[in-house]
Amino acid sequence: MKLSALTFGLTMAGLSHTVLAADAVDEHTFANLKDVVSTHLHLDLDIDFEDKQLEGFVEHTLAWQNSHARTLVLDTRDLEIDKILYQSPQGKWLPAQFTLAPRSGVKGAKLTIQFKHQASKARIYYNSLPQASGLQWLTPVQTASKTHPFMYSQSQAIHARSWIPVQDTPAMRTTYTARIQTPKDVRAVMSADNSEAFIKDGDYWFDMPQAIPPYLIAIGAGNLEYKEMSHQTAIFAEPQILDASVAEFNDTQAMIDKTNAMYGEYAWGRYDLLMLPPSFPFGGMENPRLSFITPTVVAGDKSLVNLIAHELAHSWSGNLVTNATWEDLWLNEGFTSYVENRIMEEVFGRDRAVMEQALDAAGLRAQLKNIPAPDTRLNLKLNGRDPDDAFSKVPYIKGQLFLIYLEEKFGREKFDVFVKGYFDAYAFKSLTTAEFVQYLDKHLLKKHPGIVSLNKAKEWIYQPGLPEDAPNPTSDAFNQVDSHMQAWLSGNKSLDTLPTSNWTVHEWLHFLNNLPRDLGLDKMAALDNAFNLTNSSNAELAFAWYMLAVGNGYQAIYPALDAHLSGIGRRKLIVPLYKALASTDRRDWAYRVYQKARPGYHPLAQGTVDAIFE
Ligand code: BES
Ligand code: ZN
Known about the structure:
This protein has 614 residues and is an alpha+beta fold. 35% of the residues lie in helices and 21% in strands. It has three domains: 5-223, tricorn interacting facor f3 domain (Immunoglobulin-like, Sandwich), CATH 2.60.40; 316-462, Neutral Protease Domain 2 (Neutral Protease, domain 2); 515-613, Peptidase M1, leukotriene A4 hydrolase/aminopeptidase C-terminal domain (Serine Threonine Protein Phosphatase 5, Tetratricopeptide repeat), CATH 1.25.40.
């Protein structure tokens, strides 16, 4: 699909917006945006926990772009379409002709709807299927409360189409409203104004008045209670984890205030958090007004709250200024990782922010060795692959390092003006990497000539790997950890003389990640005896320790590792462990653990781990 300079005025709060990216070629959609754009959608859905399906209709409001067009093409995957009605220019509802093509590859099944007139509205009656890739359905025993079922969506990148027939491309934007019905004792929430959702009565209304790309339409439902943290922020969670979550994330308002001051006013009204079950395959998802959060970051000491800074940062980079295609993901994730770290610096200080940079940079450098070179470019070439298949730290941390590089070259003052100006210029729009390069050249490189050349910027964006002069964040605290580690490894110091009681989780992570993979069983046991790492309650620390232990063949972890793999579905914390185990003599053990854990994993995590054991 090629969109050439298509603009179309959408009046919203008195503003006119360009809703389509000018030169986007999104190979992951069937949508014919050149002919017609859905500017608003209304969902009317029943959440049926028994049959694990959503059932009802979606009504699209259509803005025709071409006077000859009579066809609307939508993306679907694993949907059953019952009937389609459309509203004629005279306001009558008439049946529309449609064909649902067989599923073709990652894009899913193309739904082509034929009208006799340029319909102003089209209503599609449908239901999702239990295997919908964008939904997870949990039985009561899989939840914290054990009493109520739970379900939630994860639409990024191309999974909205598995629960809504929609023009599923980040090159377009739409407003939405919804009426959602659930069993009476279940509360539903969405990425929208949730103020009608306070009375738990099984009937909920939502309104998202700002235009968003479809991958940000989100829903969750379960035994959800609610607690305010500040005038703008609250948490939805199962009662069992509500108070701990509030205590962990009570800096959220401070994060918003600091970000407002750096990058301009938060555009979305409230900022609430939805705590998901541990099977959520990501750390977080930036659904507007309501970020979805893994409970594995509730560590008790705020050591992992950079996740909140990250999802909040998406309220500027991603939700306001959006990647036009999934090959431009770094525009979302690289900017967000950069802003995340700036927020952490403001709220928790420079030392912690630099430690997080250093941990992330080390993680990137390790990954770069194992990713095919073409996939280490910021501007990805997906060539028809599912965006999930090329997912890595590259868009995140290489993107962040590029922006740190520019910040260091131009100085914070100039660079902040540039970033804020970019968010302002592209607010409520999508753009491609090529458009970004033009903007960068004009508003930063040429504005302050002789500092960074366009060629250098292009090297970062279009070439594989890291440029020679890429920033290499180093932390004084980590250097000290290194020297203590060396002293212990060379036998000059015993474990009990290391200053570990002052170490933060970050210093521990650096320590564990940098110990030799052939440390030997005596030293592994000594560490475990001294610090009880096998039973760490911090999911990231436990993960780092298990990785080291698997590499060393240290057996004492296995019962705890079984519990970790069975209890958590966050891909980042399980996939590397399965991969490591699969190439040891513990492969069969790991496969048995997986067979037990698999029903509790999200379809995305199931797919990833299935591929390891195939
Ligand atoms: N938007 C992403 C999650 C995502 C990316 C889902 C691409 C599907 C496709 C989210 O904001 C994210 O990046 N989460 C990270 C947070 C971390 C970097 C702090 C995660 O889940 O680990
Ligand atoms: Zn992100």
